[in-house]
Structure formats: structure tokens, C-alpha cells
Amino acid sequence: MLAQRAAQIALFREVSSKRRAFKTMPEAEVFNVVRANSSSTSSKGASPLANLSDFVNSPNKKVVTKSTQRLKELGQAVKNLKATRDVMLMLYQFKMEELAIKRSLVENDIETASVHAKKCYKIVTRCSLLHTSLPLYSKLENLMEDLRLYLASYSKSAVGTGRSRDITSLITTYPSLGPSDQGISFISELLVDCVNFEISSQNAFLNNEPLKEIPFIFSYALRFLDLYFPDLNKYFEQGALHLLVQSVNSRVSSIVKPRLVTFANKHGTGALSEDEIENTVLIGRACKAFCEELQARTGANLRGDDARSSVRIDSSMHDNIRMLCSVYISNEIRLLRQQYSEIVRHSLSQGLIDAACVHDIFYVLQRSTQRSHATSWSKALQTIVRDVNEVLKDLHGRISQVSSNLSQNSESVSLSELGACIIRGDKGIENFISRSGVSCRVKAAIVSELIVDFSRGMNHSLESFVEEQRAKNPNWCSLQVELEELRRTAVAFERLSIELTNTLAHDSVGLVKQILNQLSLTQYILSEKQFDLLAGSKVWAQPLIWLYEQLAKAFGHESSMQNCTTWLPKFLELLAARLCITLEMTLFGNLTFNQLGILLFERELRVLVAGLSNLTQTSVRTTFSRLLSACRILSVDSITDVVDFWDAASCRLLEFNLDESLQVLKRRVDFTEMIVIETLDSLAQGERK
After folding, report:
1. Which helix (H) or strand (E) holds 524?
2. What is the pLDDT of residue 48?
3. Rounded mean pLDDT, 23-48
4. Which end of the chain is more exposed for a tag (fewer CB within 10 A), N or C?
């Protein structure tokens, strides 16, 4: 027991002596001793790890553990000394590069300064990867911050000296010398400084006019990005690049906003002109184009997946666009109402809203919608189309009111007497046209027809534009409500035009009332001699055709004067329909025929149909088809021949049902009513007599 205790004391003394020896031993000798011990142990065939295990498991475990810990601490101290030496060397190299940078900048050798700045970046990067835990690293960080501030100061001092493009290579090193947010802030501030300097230097041209300054600012900002962005793309991370774009947008917005406010205040009140409205549109388009160009150019410079991602633009510029949109809408509506009121007031002072007034109104409306197209603001277009509808409704009300106040019988001479005088040649057709009721109705009908054409054309162009915009952006407003309202307004004008044209057709038929009265007193019961005598004459067809030719010429002249080509054919068709109804009433109510008489009547009727077809440039045979069918039925040799015109499926005799067929056949004096009824009953029951 005593012997074992003595051995432990001897071993402790030996270890203590070795510890004291290690403390005073130089670093190189320490490693030599460790290496010698390792090699000697290995030469004996024993593993160092096995020897260590023996020491740990030996009775002297406590002593061996303390010795090993001490050795580890000693090795760490040596490593720290080496690291400190490396950092001090890097500090020295950094200072040398910094001095080289400053010396190069004093000599305006920016390219050489950029090379040394990049070397500084490499030094800092290498040090940050190895020795960030050492106290001396903070010294290197301080030096780096000093250098960054120095480069920033130098770069800003170059603004306005003509060296902005020369310092590109120096600026692009700036993000690498500090955190990305500092690089973003510096470049954004540099942009503001450059813009302000350029504006002040171009003051003679810009003259503090927002219309010139704002596009100039946008153009310069984009050129600024074009100059620096490709190189910055090498140093910034992609997320930092997005932040840089947003920062540039925000800074440009802050520069532009006071100028937009000035512009809005200047044009928000007082008299307006189209040039001022178009200037608002131009500035709005410039704001939108800047955002689009910013995204497009940034996306072209991004790498990898980020090149396919859209850079989000913050709301600062969009706020400016919304403010401009509100200013534009207010001014556009104000100008539209102002111009509309002036046109209508001038036209009413001359008695009636005419075609020239309508052309002027729709020119104003189309200009407004075209400018709202140009803005590409869906809200602006939507609001302007609503106001266009309101203007058209007001115009419809004015025309309707004027038309309703027309005097239908303002002349002492009746229409039938006037028509007789015109046919005799005592008066011209202009006497009919000059009647206040006729003249005003013609103009109102033509004006309404013009408005229908213009409204439908505007509706079509708006629909095409909306489809085009929605193809690009599905979220673009559809304008369904506004376009439907515009269609309803066009229908209202169409109804007004038809109503006025019908009244004119009714008055025109009144001109031939004496002719129709004479016709109704005629009995077409002719002998062969009378038939031969009257075969070549046109007792009533020719005067009707001549009178309507005169009406077509007069109304055609008025229509061409109003630049409307669609109204006259509609009027002539309605006139033919009115005349046909009057002739039907005359035939079924007053005339009687024998076979020769109906042949003569049918001959004159066909002359009338041919003449009216020439006037309308389209066939009116369909309009007179019932009259022609009646003539065919009445011209049969015997009552039994009507079976050739009978349709058993519909129980109709050509175009007439049984009751109507009875009224037609009763016009033949040689067909007794009883025989007609029996014939029609047998046809209805499927019997043939």
C-alpha cells in the first residue's frame, strides 16, 4: 500500500516537471516534442489512441486528464496567435489598398481605384470566412465602414461634374463593401442627387413646367438604371435587387409627386381646353410607362428563375397615377359638358338641333372616349362612357320635346288640297316641305337616324377596345352595364326616328287623298270596249308615282344636306307601306270588279309597284303582296278556279284566311255571296265542286 502511494507521488512530480518545461518551451520545440513522442510511440507498434486509452484507464487517470487539458489549451493559444497574426496582416493589406484607392482618386484614376476597392472586398470576404470571432475583426469592419463612407462621399461629389458615367465601376463596388440595404440606400440617394442636378442644369428648357419635368425625370431614372444595373447585378442578391428597384421607384415617386400636385392644382379649376386634358393623359401614360419599363428592364437583368418573376412595384407611383386619374376624370367631364352645352345652345338659337350640331356633339363625345382609351385606366373609361350616356339622354329629351311641340296643321290649306295643287302644277313640292311641321320633322328624323348610326359605331368601337384590354388583363372592367345602357339609348333614338318618319309618311299619303278618293268612287265593271279604251291609260298610278318622285327628290336633298344616307330609304319604305294599307282599305271597302275590271286594276297596281321599287332602290313587291294576291284571286274565270290557290294545310287562299277570302271574293260582282260561301266551305271540308 505504501509502495503504491509512493509511485503515484513520483508520477505526479514527473508530470509537474514536464508542465513547467512546456510553459517555458518555444512553440516550435513543443510541436517537435509532440511529434517525437508520437513517432516513438508509433515505432513501438502501439497506437497513440491506444496509449491514450491506457492513460485514461490507468490508476493515474486524474493526473493524465489534467495534463491533456493543459496541452489542448496550449495548442489553442498557439492557433489564436497564428490567427491574430493573419488578421494583422490583412489589416495591413487593407490599409495599403485603402491608401492606394485614395491616391488613385486624387489623381482621378477611377479604374485603378475600383481595382483596389475590389481587392479590399476580397480581403474582407476572406477574413469574414476565417476570423470573425477575433476582436481585431471589428477593427477591420471599422476600416471598411470608413472606406465605404469615403467612396460614397467621392461618388456624390462627382454628381454634376460630368464624371457620373466614369464612376460606374466605383459605384458597383459599393454594395460589396457593406450590407445590401446600405448599398440600396446609397444608390437611391445618388439617383435623387443626379436627378435634382440634371433638373437644375436643364432649367432653361424645363422652365419649371411639370409637363416637361416629369417625363424628363422618368427618362433620366431609366437611363440611370441602364447605366448601373448590369454591374450591380453581379454584387446584389436577387432579393436585394428587388428592393433596389422598389427604392428607385419610391424615390422617383417622391420627386414627381410635388410636381403632379402643382399640375393638378393648376388644371383643377378655371377654363379648360383639349390640350390641357391631353397633357393630363400624357403625364398619366408617362407614369404608367415608367412602372412598366422598370419591371421590363429589371426582369431582363435578373438571373435564373428570378428573370421570370415580376418585380413588385410599391404603391407610391400607383398613388400618383390614381391622383392623376381623378384629376383627368373631373376635367374631362367638365370639358365634355361645357362643349356640349355650347353646341346645343348655338343650335337651338337657330331653331332646331340639326345634323351639323349632331356631328359636333359626337366629335366631342368621340374625342373624350378616345382620350379615356389612351389613359388605359378602366375607371376613367367607365366614368366617361357613363357621362356620354347622360349627354345622349339629354339630347334625346331635347329632340323629343321639340318634336312634340310641332304644329301638325299650321297651314290654312289642307294636305289634300295642297297635293291637288302640286299635281296640277299650281304649287311645287317645296310648299309641302316648307310647312313648319314637315320641315322640323324631317330634320328631327334625320338627326335621330344620325345619332343611331353614331351610337352604334361608338358602341362597337368600345366593345372592341374592351375585348382587346381584357385579352391582355382579364381583371380589366367589362363595361357591360355602360355598353348595355348605350345600346338602349341607341334604340330610344331609333324609335324616335321611326315615329317621326311614320308621321311624315302619313302626311305624304295625305297629299294624294283626292286621288284615292276618286279611286274609291270608281267601279271597275268594264265592257270589252271600255277595257280596250282604258288599257293604255294610267289613271291613278302615274300621278302617285310622280308625286312620290318629287318627295324623294326633296327629302333626298335634305338628307344629303344633313350627311345622312340611311334615312331616305327607310322613309320611302314606310311611305310604300302606308300607301299599300290605304289601297287595301279602298279595295276591300269600296271597289267592285268584274274580270276585265280587276285585270285593269291589277295592271295599274303593278305599274305603281314597279315605280315605287325604282324610287326605293329595293323591291316593294313584298309590301304589296296581299293586294297582288287579291288581284290574282279576283281575276279567275270562275269561282271554282280558286281551288288552284287553296292551301289545305293552312286553310288559306294564298295569303288570306277564310273570312278574308270571303271579303275578297265578294268584290266580284258576278260571284254571288252564297256561291262564294259554299265554295269556301267545300274547300275547308276537303270537297271540290
Report:
1. none
2. 43
3. 45
4. N
